[in-house]
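Hi again,

Forgot to attach this to my earlier email, sorry! This is the prediction with 5-bromo-uridine-5'-monophosphate bound. I've pasted everything inline since the attachment limit keeps bouncing my files.
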Amino acid sequence: VEQELSYADRAKLPNVHPLATKLLNIMEAKQSNLCVSADVTSSEELLQLADSLGPNICMLKTHVDILKDYTATFSQKLQSLAEKHNFLIFEDRKFADIGNTVKHQYEGGLYQISSWSHIVNAHAVPGPGVVKGLSAVGKPLGRGCLLIAQMSSQGSLATGEYTKAVVRMSVHFLSLYYITLCVTHNLGFGFTAVYLCYLSLQLNMAEEQPDFVIGFICGSKISKKPEFIHMTPGVQMQAGGDALGQQYATPEEVLCNKGSDVIIVGRGILEAPDRLKAAESYRKSGWEAYTKRLGR
Ligand code: 5BU
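C-alpha cells for the complex follow:
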C-alpha cells in the first residue's frame, strides 16, 4: 500500500510552489489545518479575531468588501498579525472576469488586494485568461491562487466535467492557448505535429513549476498531485446547512474521508459563545482527522 505524504513531506517536494511550502510548514508546525473565515463587518473586530485566534490557525480568510470601515492601515495591521502569529491571509475575492479586468481588480481599486493577501481565488469560468491576468500581478510578488473547482452551496453548477476541466486548467492553462491557436489558424498536419511536441514540452514545464495556482477550493481531493492544496468551505461540527443554501460537512468527513487538506470555518466559530474555545476544538478535530487519514 502506497503511503500518503504528510504535510511536511509535501512541503519538501521539488516542484511545490514556495507559498504552498510555507503553508504546509505552518500547518505542520502549528498542527493546524484550520482556516478561519473572518466574516465580520468591522475592521477592529477582524483584527481582534486575527490576534486572538492567530495561534490556532494556518490561514485567515477575509471578504474585505463586507467591511464597513476598510482602510489601508487595516491591511497593514492584518499583515503584522499574520507575521506575529505565523498564518497566511486569503482574500476570498472569487475573481471571474477577463484577464485585463482581474489584473486591475487584484492590484488596484480601493483594496489593493495583491499588496496584502498571500492567496486569492478565482472562478475558472472565463478560461485561462483569468489566471494569466492574476498571475501577471501576483507572481512577481510571490502570491498564489486557488481555483474554485467546486462550491459548498446547494445546486452549485461547479460539478462533474466542469470540476475536471478546472483541474486540467490548473496545470495546462498556458497550453490551452496553443491548442486554440492551432485550431483557429487551421494549421496543417505537419505544423500541428510540431506544435503538439512543443505543447507537451510546455505541459511538462508547467508541471515542473506550478507557478501561480497552488490548489483548489473543493469538497474533496480532486487532484492526485501532492503539490496542490485542497481547501474546503462549508464545515461545521454538525453536518447540515443554513437557510440560504450553504451545506455543511464535519472536519472528520472533509479531512479524513474526502481527503481535503484545509477546512474553512466561519459561523461554526464566529457564532460560538467562546470563539477561541471553538477555534481550538476545530483545530483539534481537524488535526486528529488528518492524522487518522495518514494512519500514523
Ligand atoms: P460559514 O459561516 O462557515 O458558512 O462561511 C463559509 C465561508 O466560506 C463564507 O465566507 C463563504 O463566502 C465562503 N465560501 C463558501 O462557503 N463556499 C464556497 O464554495 C466558497 C466560499 Br468558494
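The longest helix spans residues 189-208. The pocket of 5-bromo-uridine-5'-monophosphate is lined by residues 37, 39, 63, 92, 148, 151-153, 217, 233-234, 246, 264-268 (CB under 6 Å).

That should be everything now.

G.
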